């Protein structure tokens, strides 16, 4: 083996990639261990640890391999029944995992990086030595003391025992590996003979049956390559459209050509949607991260929390997952830090001492709701209001609804926490959470009952890049409107429309008075003049469609000239220079290959209400 | 001055184009491609010289009408061509009357000290190139377009 400095950079990168994924699996299995010791989980942990050890040794990162070996020992003992699973074991394994993640990621910048693992090793060794350390009902409160519990003399004995244990297995493993290299899988029996441990050989057998399957489950693909592929397919489908036009114009009279064309049209469409699906990922990774954060924080604060994950197979666009990840972590930490009461308080209030934090993802048409709910102390509206008044955000005599008060937590600087904690420290406050969600076209709802808990519902569109849209014509231009933003499409000619002061128009729909605006007025281009109220002239006898949009509970109807079609469109961002144009969401290529603009009607509605309110 | 000196080595090549009879040049390096112009779709609330967007092989590309931008009269029968720049803020097209040629203009033949009133920020004005006696205004169009403000303040209605 070469010295670490000579390690090929490519090898390291590929090791880091694999190790990151493996450690992720390690984390998942460790967390799952909480639910009860299951032999397949231990097998999986062992498998991960063993593979990582092998891989790191292979490319010459020996310190990591040695550390991995210790981890492997603990798992080994668990499999043999030497260490009984309990909260402490899980905690130590998780700390080890955290350390390894840090270690692995640091290898990229410095291949000779070695973190300080002394404390961790001591913890690991103590597990192996002690067997079962804590009875399960004393887990959390005793956890910290037990780290220093072991007297020194014992420690030394245990260390010796541990070393012996380690050597035996190391020898067994080495023999095992050598045999495998030479003869393949049927070497198990011989390995058993060499290592003298029949259990271990059985275990190896099952491990090797599992290993090849795992490696074929997923492929790592760079997001950029994926985007390029989607881009190429988009181009392809546009040319497909052109050929189709030619066919319609009788330039391709052959029947065979027609057939082939039809088929290839379908194929291109399928490829397109498949390629777009590739961007979708299950939420499981993010969920795991959230669970981990909640449990780590709870352990740190001595709270007992049971995290329930639901719907982790729900798929999301990767971009959405990346963007929502940090805000969600913040929400979770908030729930544990502020929402869930300390152990003693829960006990005193007669609540179950173990708090429940439920994180669920619910798939809906075109949207996914991520619901974070705890059974903690709930939100104290009076305290929030008082904090807001103190900050000068709300005037002392303001009359706010309960919903409005709860939404105040999204205002920067408003905090009801009696003391500042170091928990957040991520530079993400609830105001950032709100902003991120809004930028993803999502929204947040809060339900809370004092003393009973809080439920935060974050609704997000599943994909940023493909949306269902209504294509409408306004004057000589076509615009795409996301279907999810429409509440209703109405025909203005069927409602009496009244003038309402200052040249505005209103209509009455099911008892609600709704202002009517011409969408054209919001879309001035240099070539057109404003034609306010045109829809009135056109209305009455002819159909005159209008799009009903709600913003903050208020509706406004935007009159358009015509509805062209409904189609799935691929959202493309406007160039940086056009980003932030009011009421525009982005661009798209419409079905016929022409570029079109995607409108954000809620934003236009907001423009209307702010200007109407200001008058 | 911005760093335009890297554009001024002996091998610097420029794409020459005409707007309203006037000859200009821009570094070839910043140009992604030159394509047949299409009719752009206008975008609301943008400046008048921003013609709109086109579909360039599946990509939505904004188009600036350089004649309007430079305040020139169009040629009676313009041939028109679209230069597409890969600017820092994404691809952006510039509509011109005519593309002439690609030429090499060595640094020695560029008078960069000339003080001339132009329509572009002085920072992006490279100088006056002398190519066989023809004087050419050399502009770093990539930079000009990439930093252009295309939005008009959203004074909607009334």
Architecture overview:
The complex is a heterodimer of chains A (615) and B (158). With 615 residues, chain A is of the alpha+beta class. Chain A has helices at 9-33, 39-58, 62-80, 87-107, 118-130, 139-146, 152-183, 188-195, 198-215, 223-248, 255-277, 284-300, 318-339, 343-348, 381-391, 402-407, 430-439, 534-538, 601-614; strands at residues 280-282, 305-310, 315-317, 355-364, 367-374, 443-449, 453-461, 466-474, 477-482, 488-491, 497-500, 504-509, 512-518, 545-551, 554-559, 562-570, 584-589, 595-599. Chain A contains 19 helices and 18 strands. In chain A, helix 7 (152-183) runs antiparallel to helix 8 (188-195), helix 12 (284-300) runs parallel beside helix 13 (318-339) and helix 13 runs antiparallel to helix 17 (430-439). The N and C termini of chain A lie far apart (78 Å). The model of chain A is unreliable at 1-5, 131-153, 182-216, 418-427 and 528-533 (pLDDT under 50). Chain B contains two helices and eleven strands; from the N terminus they run βββββαββββββα. Chain B has a six-stranded mixed sheet with strand order 8-1-2-11-10-9. In chain B, strand 10 and strand 11 form a beta hairpin. The longest helix of chain B is centred in the last third of the chain and has 6 residues, at 141-146. Classes of the chains: A alpha+beta (615), B mainly beta (158). The A-B interface holds A 231, 234-235, 238, 477, 521-527, 530, 532, 572, 574-578, 580-584, 587-589, 593-597, 607, 611 and B 41-46, 48, 52-55, 57-60, 62, 88-92, 146, 148-151, 154, 156-158.
């Amino acid at each position: 083996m070469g010295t670490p400095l000579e390690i090929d950079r490519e090898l390291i990168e590929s090791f880091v990639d694999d190790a990151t994924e493996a450690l992720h699996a390690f984390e998942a299995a460790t967390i799952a261990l909480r639910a009860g010791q299951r032999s397949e989980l231990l097998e999986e942990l062992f498998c991960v640890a063993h593979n990582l050890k092998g891989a790191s040794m292979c490319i010459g990162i020996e310190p990591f391999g040695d550390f991995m070996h210790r981890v492997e020992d603990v798992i080994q003992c668990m499999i043999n029944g030497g260490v009984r699973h309990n909260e402490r074991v899980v905690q130590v394994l998780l700390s080890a995992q955290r350390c390894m993640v840090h270690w692995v990621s640091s290898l990229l910048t410095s291949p000779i990086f070695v973190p300080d693992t002394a404390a961790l090793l001591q913890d690991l060794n103590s597990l192996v030595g002690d067997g079962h350390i804590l009875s399960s009902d004393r887990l959390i409160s005793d956890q910290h003391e037990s780290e220093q519990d072991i007297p020194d003399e014992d420690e030394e004995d245990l260390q010796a025992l541990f070393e012996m244990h380690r050597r035996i297995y190391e020898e067994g493993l080495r023999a095992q590996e050598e045999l495998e290299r030479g003869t393949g899988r049927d070497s198990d029996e011989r390995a058993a003979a060499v290592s003298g441990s029949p259990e271990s050989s059985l275990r190896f057998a099952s491990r090797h049956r599992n290993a090849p399957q795992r490696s074929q489950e997923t492929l790592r693909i760079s997001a950029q390559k994926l985007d390029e592929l989607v881009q190429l397919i988009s181009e392809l489908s546009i040319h497909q459209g052109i050929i189709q036009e030619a066919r319609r114009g009788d330039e391709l009279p052959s029947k065979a050509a027609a057939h082939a064309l039809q088929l290839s049209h379908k194929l291109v469409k399928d490829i397109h949607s498949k390629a777009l699906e590739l961007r979708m990922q299950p939420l499981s990774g993010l969920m795991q991260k959230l669970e981990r954060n909640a449990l780590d924080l709870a352990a740190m604060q001595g709270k007992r929390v049971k995290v329930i994950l639901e719907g982790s197979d729900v798929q999301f666009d990767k971009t959405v997952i990346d963007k929502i990840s940090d805000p969600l972590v913040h929400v979770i930490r908030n729930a544990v830090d502020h929402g869930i009461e300390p152990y003693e308080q829960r006990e005193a209030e007669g609540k179950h001492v173990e708090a429940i934090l439920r994180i669920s993802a619910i798939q809906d048409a075109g949207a996914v709701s991520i619901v974070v709910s705890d059974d903690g102390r709930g939100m104290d509206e009076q305290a929030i209001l008082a904090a807001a008044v103190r900050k000068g955000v709300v005037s002392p005599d303001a009359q706010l609804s309960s919903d409005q008060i709860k939404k105040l937590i999204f205002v920067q600087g408003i905090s009801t926490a009696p003391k500042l904690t170091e928990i957040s420290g991520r530079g993400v406050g609830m105001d950032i959470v709100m902003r991120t969600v809004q930028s993803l076209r999502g929204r947040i709802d809060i339900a809370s009952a004092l003393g009973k808990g809080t439920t935060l519902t974050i609704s997000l569109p599943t994909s940023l890049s493909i949306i269902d849209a209504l294509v409408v014509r306004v004057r000589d231009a076509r615009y795409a409107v996301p279907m999810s933003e429409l509440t209703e499409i109405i025909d203005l000619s069927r409602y009496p429309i009244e003038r309402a002061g200052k040249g505005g128009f209103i209509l009455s729909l099911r008892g609600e008075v709704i202002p009517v605006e011409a969408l054209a007025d919001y879309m001035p281009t240099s070539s057109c003049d404003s034609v306010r109220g045109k829809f009135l002239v056109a209305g009455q006898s002819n159909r005159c469609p209008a799009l009903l949009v709600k913003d903050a509970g208020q509706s406004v109807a935007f009159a358009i000239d015509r509805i062209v079609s409904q189609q799935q469109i691929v959202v493309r961002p406007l160039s940086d220079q056009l980003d932030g144009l009011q009421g525009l969401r982005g661009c798209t290529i419409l079905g016929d290959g022409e570029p079109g603009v995607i409108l954000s009607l809620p934003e236009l509605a907001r423009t209307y209400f702010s200007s109407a309110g200001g008058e | 001055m911005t760093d335009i000196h890297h554009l001024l080595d002996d091998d610097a090549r420029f794409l020459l184009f005409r707007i309203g009879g006037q000859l200009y040049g821009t570094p070839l390096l910043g140009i992604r491609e030159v394509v047949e112009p299409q009719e752009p779709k206008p975008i609301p609330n943008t400046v008048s010289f921003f013609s709109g967007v086109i579909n360039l092989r599946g990509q939505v590309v904004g188009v600036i009408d350089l004649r309007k931008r430079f305040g020139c009269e169009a040629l009676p029968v313009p041939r028109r061509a679209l230069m597409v720049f890969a600017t820092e803020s994404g691809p952006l097209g510039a509509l011109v009357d005519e593309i002439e040629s690609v030429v090499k203009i060595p640094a020695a033949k560029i008078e960069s000290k000339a003080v001339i009133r132009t329509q572009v920020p002085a920072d992006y004005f490279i100088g006056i190139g002398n190519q066989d006696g023809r004087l050419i205004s050399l502009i770093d169009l990539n930079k000009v377009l990439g930093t252009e403000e295309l939005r008009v303040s959203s004074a909607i209605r009334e």
